[in-house]
Design brief:
The complex is a heterodimer of chains A (235) and B (107). Chain A has 235 residues and is mainly α. Chain A has eleven helices and no strands. The chains are: A mainly alpha (235), B mainly alpha (107).
Chain lengths: 235, 107
């Protein structure tokens, strides 16, 4: 195994490790939610392995439990996953020189946290082996954590009282991802505009308001970056 | 509640609706390129997406915006803990403690 692969894997893993702690409550909550929707442990783990997406799983779960039509379940899943088209396009240049099977694997295990951690170096480093390892090590680590702690959550569901509101841990996990990003002002503006728009547009059908809000947030962040840049250049 | 075998078909279709968007540009690679302006703009996607999922969840109670609800105050505590300290568990402890503290006070 070439050493650039190994150093890339180590650096990616170390960069992602602190953030990956946030996956633990997420996965526990996911396991508990699937168990309380009435899935057997086999069905719950089946969904967890086949879908491997917290937001899409949590978003479609109530629809599956209510026996909603298949098209509505799929439309909801797609709306929740549209952001990944954007992530995929943004990180794609980081996979130049990487084989097609490795790209499919990379695509399957693309998650918000791994994208946020890996994007910068994926675009800057030249060595394709280093880049692939820097991406895959944290992505596969997230996969393992997701499966193990969902399994624990599935079996723990029966023992934890509902009043504990463990589902709120999932919200805190998203906050932990968001706060470090929002330290830069254009990012903060992108987050505020995205969040407020999603709140105002929450009654749009099929949760499409989320997609519109993300686009509004991106636009606002980009505009803020240009405005700041322009102000610095002109004395 | 019991589910029949069609549940597995639903899982596979949701799985495709997840993996295809994720793999799209990573697999297509150089054959399709986004302009660099668009790529720079797309860096704001994760922050906008995360906030778009979190904010309605903590601002809206029973269909309308409520600025004094326990979840929002608890989320504020989690944000403060995440911004001030590096310990990754603190936001969870702060958020859950405030949420349960307020519920106890509120009866």
């Amino acid at each position: 195994m070439p050493s650039s692969f190994r150093t890339g894997a180590r650096e990616g893993f170390i960069a992602f490790l602190p953030l990956s702690v946030g996956l633990v409550p997420w996965a526990l909550v996911m396991g508990m939610a699937m168990a309380s929707a009435g899935f057997s442990p086999l069905q719950a783990m089946g969904m967890n392995i086949i879908v491997f997406a917290g937001t899409a799983q949590l978003g479609t779960l109530p629809l599956i439990a209510a026996e909603a039509p298949l098209w509505l379940i799929l439309a909801t899943a797609l709306a929740l996953n549209l952001r990944f088209v954007i992530f995929s396009a943004a990180i794609a240049p980081g996979f130049r020189g990487v084989s097609a099977p490795a790209r499919w694997l990379a695509g399957h295990v693309l998650t918000d946290g791994v994208f946020a951690v890996c994007l910068d170096k994926m675009l800057k480093v030249d060595d394709p082996k280093w880049r692939l390892a820097y991406y895959l090590a944290p992505a596969l680590w997230a996969w393992v954590l997701w499966q193990v702690f969902a399994l624990i959550g599935i079996f723990a569901a029966g023992f934890i009282p509902k009043q504990w509101s463990l589902e709120f841990m999932a919200t805190v996990a998203l906050i932990v991802l968001l706060v470090p990003m929002a330290r830069v002002r254009p990012m903060l503006i992108a987050a505020l505009v995205g969040g407020i728009s999603a709140t105002l547009l929450r009654n749009m059908p099929l949760r499409l308001g989320v997609v519109v809000a993300i686009c509004a947030g991106i636009g606002a962040g980009f505009a803020a970056e240009h405005w700041e840049h322009g102000r610095k250049v002109q004395p | 509640m019991n589910y029949d075998a069609s549940l597995w078909l639903i899982f596979i279709l949701i799985g495709l609706a997840t993996t295809l968007p994720r793999a799209s540009f990573i697999v297509l690679g150089n054959r399709v390129a986004l302009p660099s302006v668009l790529q720079r703009a797309l860096r704001y996607a994760p922050a906008a997406a995360l906030a778009a999922i979190v904010m309605p969840d903590v601002l809206v109670v029973a269909g309308s915006v409520d600025l004094l609800n326990p979840k929002l105050v608890a989320a504020g505590a989690a944000v403060a803990a995440a911004a001030l300290w590096r310990n990754p568990w603190l936001p969870f402890i702060a958020g859950m403690a405030v949420l349960h503290g307020l519920r106890l006070l509120g009866g």
